[in-house]
Specification:
Blueprint: H1 2-23, E1 25-33, E2 44-47, E3 52-54, E4 60-65, E5 68-75, E6 82-88, E7 93-100, E8 127-130, H2 132-138, H3 143-147, E9 153-155, E10 167-169, E11 181-184, E12 187-188, E13 208-214, E14 230-235, E15 243-251, E16 255-266, E17 269-280, E18 289-303, E19 306-319, H4 328-333, E20 344-361, E21 364-382, E22 384-388, H5 392-396, H6 398-404, E23 418-422, E24 424-425, E25 428-429, E26 431-453, E27 456-478, E28 488-510, E29 513-530, H7 531-535, E30 548-565, E31 568-579, E32 589-591, E33 594-596, E34 609-622, E35 627-643, E36 648-672, E37 675-697, H8 708-720, E38 725-730, E39 736-738, H9 746-749, E40 752-759, E41 775-785, E42 788-797, E43 822-835, E44 839-848, E45 855-858, E46 868-870, E47 874-882
Parallel strand pairs: 1-7, 11-14
Antiparallel strand pairs: 1-4, 2-3, 2-5, 5-6, 8-13, 9-10, 11-12, 13-14, 15-16, 15-47, 16-17, 17-18, 18-19, 19-20, 20-21, 21-26, 22-23, 24-25, 26-27, 27-28, 28-29, 29-30, 30-31, 31-34, 32-33, 34-35, 35-36, 36-37, 37-40, 37-41, 38-39, 38-40, 41-42, 42-43, 43-44, 44-47, 45-46
Length: about 900
Amino acid sequence: MKLRRRIPFLFFVLLFIQLQVVAQITVTGKVIEEGNNEPLMGAQIVLENGSGAITDRNGNFSFNLKAGNYAGTVNYLGYEKKTITITINTQNLELGAIPLQLSNTTLDEVIVSASPKSFKDEFKGSNFRITPIALKNSNPLSTEEMLRTVPGVNIVGDMGLSNRPNISIRGSWGRRSKKVLLMEDGTPSAPAPYIAPGAYYNPVSDRITAIEVYKGADLLRYGPNNMYGAINYITALPPQKPELRVKLIGGQRNYRTGLISYGGTWNNLGALVEGVYKKFDGFTDNSSVEVLNLNAKVFAKLSDNQSLYFKVSAQSEDNQASLSSQTPFTFDTDPTQNPLDADQFTMRRYGLDIIHKWLPVENLSFTSKVYASDFERDWWRQTTAKIKASEVQNYVGDAIFNDRYSYLNGRNYDEEDYVIVGRVNNGRESTTDSRWTYTVSGVKETMDYEWKAFEKGQHLEASFNLHSETFKDRFLVADSSRWARSGRATTDLWYRLWSANGFIRNEFNIGKWGITPILRFEHVDMYRQDLIAVAQDPNISSTEEGREPNVYTQFLPGITLDYQTNYGEFYGSIYEGMIAPSKVFGFLVEQDGIVTNPLAGQSINIDPELSWNREIGWRGDVFDKRVDGQFTYFNNTSRNFYAGGRNEVFQELGKINVQGLEVALGVELLNKNQHQFRLVGNLNLMRSKVLAGKLEDKDLFSQVIHNSATQNEYINTVNANRNAYEIYVSDGLGGETLLTDQTVEPSTFQNITKSVIQFGDQGIVDAEAPYTPMSTTNVGLNYDYKKLSLGLSGNFVSTQFTEFHNFSNESADGAIGKLPSYHTFDAFVNYDFVIGDNVHMNAFINGKNITNEIYRASRLNRATSGIFGGGFCQFIFGVNIRI
């Protein structure tokens, strides 16, 4: 009887559950960008009943509704709002792709799509894009970690978290990325892009949303250093839906990162405030780093024809940054050793960007940008000496040896084993300080005009920029202690510069053909003052005394030709690029091909380094978009080449050719039942050749500690091509004389003071430029299933020379010699999940260089530094929370 009573009750319960299931109908769709169909990640779908969804990394969304009619909107910052109407019956509904049109008031430099493609369609010529998905999966320690995956880019390894990156593009000299234009949201980010372009500031990787690398003729839209390539770091825009974000990371060697941000979009106003704190003990002893970055931004659509972007940022850093202390002996003994415990790099930087865009008519816009930055750094470094390993304890004393060199106890030494130590005078170690202060400001106006001809849309763009820089360069010496943080000034230089620059560019579209000519101009007026020398003259009559001016004007033409097919775009371009003469190199005299320091009354006239850059390639997708990528052949020839490495200078300006093939491919191996399996591969094949010039290596005999291998290699190389070398030897009286003997004997080697190489037809014809490996390869496999992502990647770099002499053997101090090839492997796994209705979480583990194959990464500071190591294994883990 009781069972009969329960049957109707169970029936009604099951019926109720069934009705609820039927009542909840799944609606799915995808939001894309109109025109190129690229997915938009983070778009918001809001219905009139208050329900809605946010698109995922592939632009997809889904939500559950009851049957009925609904109206709503699709919103995405920087895009036109779109109204949608949904009619639901009793079956799951697929809305398909919903295209959003990019707003006319949007700023191109700060908008990023989630497309997996490796290039940006809007940029004419070769370029490469590192997507938000790639950055999320990698959780990079530094931006260099991601840039090494870009074909044509070589990372010249340095220190720690690479806060001072060393990036080479298509064979450029890589130290501090001096010949690469670095930008953040379209604004040059180097402390002083003209006078001192060394990248002593780099945005922390945790706040980067995407990275774009430009290499084609459209590079002339940017300057000043546009010969080899440019990198644009794109930071996060305010999210569409207000959210709090917290990202926490931990890892080996006390690696800690904390990010907190809050932002959202309210009607037509988006705002975001963000802070990042980073701390790391470093891969070697005495190499810890602590970084704090704060930034805030506002993106507002003021009206249908006006928008405003405002960003303010600040970064401080305290770093035990050494210029290295490794010789071959110490590196092979223990690559983690660094005895220079008093080295300290501190910096602070403030930055401001204000951008206003106005459309007086629908097809005409004006974009006004005001930017400014203020940067200051102190780099206290111990004075060093190179001592035979067998003599270290006797040189530094027992106390210092037991404190920082005890790892040498019990080691077997030979006569060619050396150690870099802190120089000791009167029982004390000493230190010096390189103190630099920069200010940069500018205003830029850009006009865009859309017009019609040949039944196609055409695009005219013109820009004008006024730019100003100051640079204060002081060098202090403190003899009292390695811990001293003040001393006497031995250098006090003052640099000032202003520049008027700009470009005019037009995209002509005729059928499937596109022709884009571009012309850039640069007018630079700069001067230098040696304030110590001026102060010693009692007869100075104004603050303008002692100014050494350099004024030059340069026009840079370029043109790109492209042809559209069903399988992508074929393109070719040629343009003239420029590297601005900076610091000491910008204040020299060149006469009849010979470069000298100016004498009193001489007119400084050194020209920019120039090049003709040519490329031809293809980019697109085939096999129903399962394979996408790009191929580019490039051939660049630079002239007026004065300096590459530290103290390697051309007395007669050099000429260098670099050519190669760049390949980037993405292959969709599987996309079925939510399983996605993708292969990515990037390859660069490169060959460099020094075509002409006469070079003096000022370190080779005054600083480098040679061993028998480098001595014999040098003697054999010189004797095999004696006419290519001018050899100077000591005359025993403090001077030097030209060695006229046709054969250099081993007994002569110790007396050599200077060596000058002639490149080209009259000298060496097959020398390679430093840090131009013949091949770099990056291959990765990524697998995604629902909320799970995992992947494995490998990076392979071939051998590379480190100086223009092209030594194959390594010197006793590690200052010269060919770098062996190396490879690294990285892996990641991450999982997305939701707690409740509003807490979205992503947990991850990343392994960097998981095989721990430690390699020789560079010899960037050569005679004062020796070997920089790379390849240290590092595991990190963390969680990214969005509420």
